[in-house]
Amino acid sequence: DSGVTQTPKHLITATGQRVTLRCSPRSGDLSVYWYQQSLDQGLQFLIQYYNGEERAKGNILERFSAQQFPDLHSELNLSSLELGDSALYFCASSSEPTGLSYTFGSGTRLTVV
Amino acid sequence: GQQVMQIPQYQHVQEGEDFTTYCNSSTTLSNIQWYKQRPGGHPVFLIQLVKSGEVKKQKRLTFQFGEAKKNSSLHITATQTTDVGTYFCAVETSYDKVIFGPGTSLSVIP
User: Fold this and answer.
1) Per CB distance under 8 Å, which residues of B are interface residues toward A?
2) Residue B78 to residue A50: CA distance in whole angstroms
């Protein structure tokens, strides 16, 4: 157990739907990062939050949004889902916003049918 | 934008053989990290290199940061089946986001 908790582990949904993925960072970590991993794209950085504030943005689609709550857990919202959104979504956390290693959760596997 | 390349993309080795993967950046790096992802698992942090020319060892794994801080290598001596997985390098960009290389997938034939 890495200490980073992601729920749900698996999610199957239809095109056009909206889903929410949840991440609880490791105790004491203030930074949360979201990554998308698909077979042909590797690990793609989506977005980073630090202590409730958005800190860095990557290749995140406009249909996707995220937030970090006062208790530091984070949610990634994916809407108007397309088949191509099927992927593993990882959350990672670290204690500082830069320069340190990440601890990854076990991921949420999203399948859009 | 900043690009991170890794070679080779795939490597199949006989158990006991050595393995090396290389990570190359288009820009000078402040630091570089290495992660391992087992099949069906999540990335796990292995090490971080910060200094030019730095060499770190973890048992059979040797990590090196280039003198110009634009490249790095991971060398595994005498591979074992437990080394199977994908090895990623990760670098921090000037925009405070960490990007991962495409990874090198290692298969070990017993």
Assistant:
1) 30-31, 33, 35, 41-45, 48, 88, 90, 92, 95-103
2) 41
How crowded is residue B57: how many other Cβ atoms within 10 Å of its Cβ? 12
Whether the CB of A13 is below 8 Å from some CB of chain B: the reply is: no
> pLDDT digits over B21-64, tens only?
999 998 899 899 999 999 999 999 999 999 999 999 999 999 99
Cα(A83)–Cα(A91) distance, integer angstroms:
21
Segment A14-53, tens digit of pLDDT: 999 999 999 999 999 999 999 999 976 789 999 999 999 9
Burial bucket for residue B79 (CB in 10 Å: 0-12, 13-18, 19+): buried
CB contact under 8 Å between B43 and A104, yes or no, is yes
Location of structure tokens 């110009």: B68
Contact A42 B44 (CB under 8 A): no
Q: For B96, which of A42, A98, A106 is closest by C-beta distance?
A: A98
Contacts of B89 in chain A (CB under 8 A): none
